[in-house]
């Protein structure tokens, strides 16, 4: 079970697991959208694009990184 959301290193185009990394990231987006809706997800994306850390971007919509990771991990366990 991954302990953290995929980061920059996991998205390296030479990675052999790039497809899995994108799927993990997609599930994280689903978790965020489930909690704050599509507009909240877009705000998180915009904040991150503007240079916010993941934790800062999530905080902009009232979420904590820890809560999102726990929900994301539950989703992953549900797929196992």
The total domain count is 1
List how many beta strands DSSP finds: 0
**Rg for CA atoms:** 12 Å
* Fraction of helical residues: 55-70%
Mean pLDDT score, rounded?
96
The helix count comes to 3
First CA to last CA: what distance?
10 Å
Report the sheet with the most strands, covering strand number, pairing sense and barrel closure.
none
The coarse overall form would be globular
Element order: H for helix, E for strand: HHH
Tell me about this structure.
The protein is mainly α and 80 residues long. The protein has one domain (17-79). Helix content is 66%, strand content 0%. It contains three helices and no strands. It has helices at 18-49, 54-59, 65-79. Helix 1 (18-49) runs antiparallel to helix 3. The termini are close together. The model has no long low-confidence stretch (mean pLDDT 96).
Could you provide a short overview of the structure?
With 80 residues, this protein is an all-alpha fold. It has 3 helices and no strands.
Q: What's the helix and strand layout?
A:
Blueprint: H1 18-49, H2 54-59, H3 65-79
Helix pairs in contact: 1-3
Offer a few descriptive terms.
about 80 residues, mainly alpha, 3 helices
